[in-house]
């Protein structure tokens, strides 16, 4: 008997050394995991609602529910200057779903007769929860595990997938699919209230295993799948930049092109990084160009270029070699992830072109810890009146605009529903205060601007000398421009020395004391409506607004020589 034991042990060892090494997949029977393929588009008004429903289902089932956002169809077609999130893979997947409206989605590409939109796998967003509950209670005959890494030196993605069959598949051949997704892509979105800064998640960019997947030819109980795929990630898809830190992969096995059995998700790790602790300044966001005034709040973009999580660092910054200001950041930033940090406002002495220096604290690599950036100051105009020339598109009810000062007071505005389709407007706006910054904002509720899909709309603001201050028309949900009005609104020593308005604020009665003769005044409310006008004579004058509602009013005074000055009146 003692002679047989070593032989048995040798045989067992010999056999086990040739068995596949299962490492990331369970061999115990499991229920199905949910793969929601959500059909969406940037011009779909109700798609953000679909995104919220999908995310709530994922939050409730974090390890068993995975989302693939597929931009497809007419609502996904970009307008001029907009990003293209579509893929040929997504179009083919959507085509076999029989979808008839947006947003819609397929849950594991299963057909639910009572929930189906058009006799196919596509369902309206109100049905996803019911379908999810059904799938999560179904047993899966195959389990799946996935892991992935990206070599940052050559952008090579390596995906390792393991599958284990706990029971026989009804199909002799199954299909292994690997979807590559990108998260946190800012872009336009009708609905959602974010305009062009909507955060697109779970966005399909590529199918690594091809349109319908890699064939698995052994699908009986006890079969083990062990496959590794490599793929070189490009710098962009359809012109939309790739952010390596925002990629993840979803692997799933289907019986045919339909009927997904189960899946798994993984966020890639990184290889090829040189340093453990390395914070890098990528740049500043374009919030400073056209800055108006003598203070700024820079938004700096910091990336973690090291292996270790970034948890804290200090930032020092100055503008035009002025006083240096410090800011401490704390949080959690993973490898290759980046974050935008709005720094507290800093005062500076403006020039036409301004330089800002930003430095972060020392780490393993100080070559990327300091940089200089440049921004232009907002143009200044000497004018007492600006004229808004507006041409609306064919859906003018979607359009609104307002002109505000640096305190946010509305100088003039037009609200939604107040404008007519394909019409031309010319609106004179009295400038109430000199040496002040003004912001013009135009909004479109549908998110397609006023040019050029549904009419040739446009806007421009000109000064009283005919110079164009701003102009535009092509935007998504909102367009904003800031300009400065200088000191020459007709202000001179006559106004400075010989005109006094008191009390201000008042209950509606304002005293105007002046030595000027034959001056006229006009008063407007916040929406630009003419409220009152009259003559101001030498001596004491009384302006009565007691019959007007409480609020802010703007008064323009013009002398007989044509000189003008604006005042802000507050009635309370």
Mean pLDDT: 89
Shape: elongated
CATH architecture of the largest domain: Sandwich
Low-confidence stretches: 1-19, 488-494
Considering the protein shown, what is the CATH homologous superfamily of the largest domain?
A: Immunoglobulins
Radius of gyration: 32 Å
Straight-line N-to-C gap: 107 Å
Beta strands, count:
46
Structure classification:
mainly beta
The name of the CATH topology of the largest domain is Immunoglobulin-like
Estimated helix fraction: under 10%
The CATH class of the largest domain, by name, is: Mainly Beta
SS field, number of helical segments: 5
Main beta sheet: 5 strands, antiparallel
Number of domains: 4
Strand content: 35-45%
Task: Describe the secondary structure blueprint for this structure.
Elements (H helix, E strand, L loop, with lengths): L3 H13 L13 E2 L2 E7 L6 H14 L4 E7 L16 H8 L8 E4 L15 E2 L3 H9 L2 E2 L1 E10 L4 E10 L8 E9 L2 E3 L10 E3 L2 E5 L6 E3 L7 E9 L3 E2 L2 E2 L5 E8 L5 E7 L2 E3 L7 E6 L10 E2 L2 E6 L5 E10 L5 E9 L4 E5 L3 E2 L5 E8 L9 E7 L3 E2 L3 E7 L7 E7 L4 E5 L9 E7 L5 E9 L6 E2 L2 E2 L1 E5 L5 E5 L5 E8 L7 H6 E4 L6 E6 L4 E6 L5 E7 L2 E6 L6 E8 L5 E8 L1
Parallel strand pairs: 2-3, 7-19, 29-39
Antiparallel strand pairs: 1-6, 2-4, 4-5, 7-8, 8-14, 9-12, 9-13, 9-17, 10-11, 15-16, 17-18, 20-22, 21-26, 22-25, 23-24, 23-27, 27-28, 30-33, 30-37, 31-32, 31-34, 34-39, 35-36, 37-38, 40-41, 41-44, 42-43, 42-45, 45-46
Q: Could you explain the architecture of this structure?
A:
The chain is mainly β and 572 residues long. It folds into four domains: 30-271, Immunoglobulins (Immunoglobulin-like, Sandwich); 279-376, Immunoglobulin-like (Sandwich), CATH 2.60.40; 380-485, Sandwich (Lipoxygenase-1); 493-571, Macroglobulin (MG2) domain (Immunoglobulin-like). The chain is 9% helix and 45% strand. The strands form 14 sheets. Strands 9, 12, 13, 17 and 18 form a five-stranded antiparallel beta sheet that branches. A five-stranded mixed beta sheet has the order 29-39-34-31-32, with no helix packed on it. The protein has a four-stranded mixed beta sheet with strand order 3-2-4-5. A hairpin with a 6-residue loop joins strand 40 (499-502) and strand 41. The chain is elongated. Mean pLDDT is 89; it is low at 1-19 and 488-494.
